[in-house]
Amino acid sequence: MAEQLLHMSVSCLISGRKFLLTCIYGLHSIQHRKPVWEQLRHIGQQQITLPWVVLGDFNSVLTPDEKHGGLLVTNREIRDLADCVSFLELFDTQHVGCFYTWSNNTGHSKIDRVMVNSTWLQDDLDIYTEFLPPGCISDHSLSITTVFRESRRRNPPFKFYNMWAAHDEFESIVQEHWVFYGKGTTQFVLKKAF
């Protein structure tokens, strides 16, 4: 445990599988974040042979296209995280939901992530993350990560049966549920409407 990270070993009670988990909270300035990247490198150099998940608020983007609005991203801002991720061979998990995970209503950034090491990928373990819209509880997206659920169907098809349209109340039901009056980000309102 350190100021900006918590590192642990996790054992699944159902499958018996073990993996390492590191939770990150990167501080707000580049200089104050430097120790967390050094500590991650140190953990990674301990011959990690188990699958490893690194997640949390990194407070830094990996690439300039992960920020929209506000000041432009400089190479100095992304260098430390990018070097650390490259050194440790970490990769973003498959994810759905919001791309930008933080918003102050004028700027949006992807500063929250869930990443795995190459061992996780080589073992072909199942993991995916859903990033919910920011603004409900915090200006960050809530992330829900699911692991070891191998039976998950990917992209199930939408099916519409014509018999539904023949129902007497079909149009009124669709009209009633189509309109959604809600508050929040545009993404949140769109998601709740459907």
UniProtKB/TrEMBL annotation:
Residues 45-140 form the Endonuclease/exonuclease/phosphatase domain. It comes from the Eukaryota. GO terms for molecular function: catalytic activity. This is Endonuclease/exonuclease/phosphatase domain-containing protein. It comes from Dorcoceras hygrometricum. The lineage of its organism: Eukaryota, Viridiplantae, Streptophyta, Embryophyta, Tracheophyta.
